[in-house]
Each structure stands twice: as C-alpha cells, then as structure tokens.
C-alpha cells in the first residue's frame, strides 16, 4: 500500500506538489485523489506570483567590435557582434535580450538601458577607444541605478572583468599576464562561508566539490588579476570580494570569480556561457556537470534581474529585442564562436 501510494505520489507531483505533500499521509488514496483533482481543476493550489518580482526580465548585452569570426563574416570597421552563446545563456534562464550596440549614439544606448533589468559584458579583446568608453558609461549607469534603489545586476565575463578592474582601479595597466588560453580549469573557493549570498549559493555541495576538483569551467584569457594585486589595490579590494581563484599553465594563481560587496555585480574570468553553447574548441567541457554550471549561473543571474523594479513599456521592449536580428553560423570553420549576431547598420 505504501509503495503504491509513493508511486501515485510521484505521478501526482507533476499535478500539484503542494496538494500531494499536504494530503498523502492523511487521506485514503481515493479520497486523496479526488481532493487533488478538485484542487487541480479549481486551481486553488497554484501559488500566486510574488508581486515583488518581475517575471518578464530583459537583459542588455553590450556588443563588441568586430564580426566575432575573424573577418569571415564581415570586415566593415563599424561591425560589432554578440556571440549567440551569451544570448542563449540569458534566454535559457527565462529572460529576453536587448542588444546594446556599443557604437550607437549614447542617447540611443541610454534609451535601451531604460528598458532592461540588468546588463552583461561579454568576453573579447577590445580595451581602448569607444568600446572602453561605452563599457565605462554602462557600468556607471549600473551603479547609479542601484544607488537610486533598484536591484540592477551586472555580469562581467572575461574581458568584462578586466575592463571593470581597469575602470574601478583607474589604472589601464592593472591586469597581469597569464597563460590561460583555451583551457578548462577548476575553481578554488577562497572562503566556503562566502558561498551563501553569492552566485554559487544554489549549487548543490556535490557540484561545488566537483568545481574545485574537476576541470569543468572554461578559461580563455591572456590577462587577469592575481589575488595579491587585487588586494593591494585599495579601490579594487574595497569593491570586490574574491570568491574563487584558478591556476594557469605556469602555476600562477589568478582571481577567477569576484563579487562586489555593495552591488549586484559579479565578475568571471572564466566563461559560464560556453559549456552549454560553444563548440569551437575541443577543450570546452560539455559534461552534464559542466552544463549544470552554465544553467545554475544563468538562473542566478536572471533571479537577480527579476528583483529589478523596472517595468518597461512592452512594445518598446519588443521593438528593441534581439529577435529583430538573426544570428549567423560563424563556427563552420571549426573555431571561434558558433553563432554570432552582427550589427553594422550604425550611422554615427
Ligand atoms: C575579410 O578580409 C579577409 C582578409 O583580406 C578575407 O580573407 C575575407 O574573405 C574578408 N571577409 C569578407 C566577409 O569579405
């Protein structure tokens, strides 16, 4: 009887977890099933949405100079790109994307920033000129939004982390050289007690253990920050808490994940978006555990964006969504990003 009940319970779980948990020990099976059916039909067991959260979050992703395919798609100088893996990363967690095209006039960019609930800085190579200036202004917008009382998250990945380090330290040469091109690595947690309230807070302990022992995150960078240099810089050490470190080919240790103390800003020297969505390198981990890392990171990011108070006009959002553009298969050559969005209709 008990086993039958358990089997029924499993089936019923897909109908109503709350009702099942409430009733299965109290009522004979048939009565319970009837109650369950009643709850299901009347919908009375569906919890109402949390009014404090926004269930249609939109993320702005800043485009990066170039076609994202070493000129195979476009050589136009005003071309910029967003690798589709970042878009899928955001979409997979229940949000939509508005491309923030870095070389658009600032008034166009700032209008788009009014429509989003968080922003993402991608990897790449550009550290100078207009791209740097746009990243700096979007970062300053992020601070201002949060200072004004919103909860407006920023994920800064690889180059994004390096740029934030340069901006916050006001030192263009703050980054150091590392040998971490195209390799998978572990993450070493600096202080386990810091996991709560961080991007890793929803990770099961078994996966945290694997992160520190198995190479399931992807690195692809030549620069970075050693913990020593970050901590020696007053501006950086008062802004960032170091969550994890990793080790390069020469056994040099760099900061691989850092979180702002006072803002919902998380920086990654590694690439959470690649495990599930990029195939251009044989070193990208694609195991189930590796893909779970991508998914948990995306879920965390969008759970943060749902806390934002911005409720943008729906039609304006639709007019600016990345759905207005089509990605191109740039990875057919067996390298680089698999799919990229290119933008080159910019008049400045
Ligand atoms: C861009 O320039 C490179 C080098 O000249 C060339 O091989 C490539 O075909 C060009 N790409 C396009 C899309 O025209």
Structure write-up:
- This protein is of the alpha/beta class.
- The chain folds into two domains: 41 residues, no CATH class; 267 residues, Rossmann fold (3-Layer(aba) Sandwich).
- Helices cover 37% and strands 20% of the residues.
- Helix 6 packs across helix 7.
- The radius of gyration is 22 Å and the shape is globular.
- The chain starts with a helix and ends in a 5-residue tail after the last strand.
- The structure holds 2-acetamido-2-deoxy-beta-D-glucopyranose (NAG).
- The site of 2-acetamido-2-deoxy-beta-D-glucopyranose has 4 residues, from loops.
What keywords describe this structure?
alpha/beta; four-stranded antiparallel sheet; Rossmann fold; 348 residues; binds 2-acetamido-2-deoxy-beta-D-glucopyranose; globular; 14 strands; eight-stranded mixed sheet; disordered N terminus; single chain; 2 domains
């Amino acid at each position: 009887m008990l086993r039958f009940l358990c089997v029924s319970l499993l089936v019923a779980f897909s109908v109503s977890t709350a009702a099942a948990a409430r009733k299965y020990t109290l009522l004979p099976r048939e009565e319970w099933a009837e109650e369950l059916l009643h709850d299901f039909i009347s919908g009375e067991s569906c919890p109402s949405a949390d009014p404090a959260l926004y269930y249609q979050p939109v993320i702005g992703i800043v485009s990066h100079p170039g076609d994202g395919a070493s000129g195979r798609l476009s050589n136009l100088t005003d071309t910029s790109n967003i690798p589709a893996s970042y878009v899928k990363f955001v979409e997979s967690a229940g949000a939509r994307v508005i491309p923030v095209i870095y070389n658009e006039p600032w008034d166009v960019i700032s209008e788009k920033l009014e429509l989003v609930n968080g922003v993402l800085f991608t990897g790449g190579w550009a550290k100078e000129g207009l791209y740097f200036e746009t990243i700096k202004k979007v970062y300053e917008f992020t601070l201002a939004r949060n200072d004004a009382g919103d909860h407006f998250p920023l994920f800064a990945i690889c180059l994004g982390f390096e740029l934030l380090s340069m901006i916050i330290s006001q030192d263009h040469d703050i980054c150091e050289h590392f040998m971490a091109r195209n390799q998978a690595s572990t993450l070493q947690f600096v202080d386990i007690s810091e996991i709560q309230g961080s991007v890793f807070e929803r990770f099961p302990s078994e996966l945290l253990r694997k992160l520190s022992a198995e190479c399931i995150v992807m690195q692809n960078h030549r620069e970075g920050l050693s913990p020593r240099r970050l901590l020696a810089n007053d501006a950086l050490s008062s802004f960032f808490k170091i969550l994890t470190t990793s080790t390069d080919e020469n056994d040099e240790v760099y900061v691989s994940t850092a979180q702002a103390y006072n803002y919902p800003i998380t920086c990654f020297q590694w690439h959470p978006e690649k495990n599930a969505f990029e195939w251009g390198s044989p070193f990208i981990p694609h195991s189930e555990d590796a893909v779970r890392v991508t998914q948990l990171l995306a879920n965390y990011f969008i759970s943060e964006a749902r806390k934002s108070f911005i409720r943008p006009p729906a039609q304006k959002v639709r007019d600016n969504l990345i759905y207005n553009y089509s990605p191109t298969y740039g990875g057919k050559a067996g390298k680089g990003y698999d799919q990229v969005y290119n933008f080159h209709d910019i008049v400045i």
